[in-house]
Design a protein that fits this description.
The protein contains 7 helices and no strands. The protein has 158 residues and is mostly helical. The longest helix is centred in the middle third of the chain and has 19 residues. The protein is globular and about 55 Å long. The N and C termini lie far apart (56 Å).
């Protein structure tokens, strides 16, 4: 009988706590590579939210709200001046709202995501919007969701 490993739903919170502790104890030094300088509490929250969103796609009931909380922390910590990260956070938060079953909130966040996406030329942002699009399908009766879907389509076709 082999050793049973914890699933990602248990490893992510433990890894996040360990990363937060390491980040709090970190002191900048000249030996660190330039590309790590951007990594701060907001970035950790965004990365954590993204990984929890991955889990939420499989089990929304247990992970979507926590993913949304982490993504909101990243959004408010970074602000809209974060450009691409801000747009990705908005897209992730919209997806969380849809996963939770909050169609109206999902549509509202989708509008914010598209507005943020218009300010960046990121291919990754466009790809994520493409993955958000199916959440807006099948809600023909909801005007706000139809408008959100149309805004994604308009941006992706431009």
């Amino acid at each position: 009988m082999g050793v049973r490993r914890a699933g990602p739903h248990r490893r992510i919170p433990a890894a996040t706590a360990k990363a937060a502790e390491a980040l709090a104890d970190a002191t900048p030094n000249e030996e660190e590579p330039y590309w790590i300088a951007y990594f701060d509490e907001a970035e950790l929250a965004g990365v954590t939210g993204g990984r929890l969103l991955d889990l939420a796609r499989q089990d929304p009931r247990h992970h979507a709200e926590r993913a949304a909380d982490e993504i909101r922390t990243a959004l408010f910590s970074r602000g809209s001046e974060a450009g691409r990260s801000h747009a990705l956070d908005r897209i992730g938060l919209a997806e969380c709202r849809f996963l939770i079953g909050d169609v109206g909130g999902g549509a509202e966040e989708t509008h914010r995501a598209v507005s943020a996406a218009r300010l960046t030329q990121s291919g990754r942002v466009r790809a994520q919007l493409g993955q958000l699009y199916p959440y807006t399908a099948g809600h023909q009766a909801s005007r706000s969701v139809r408008e959100a879907r149309d805004s994604i389509r308009d941006l992706l076709s431009s």
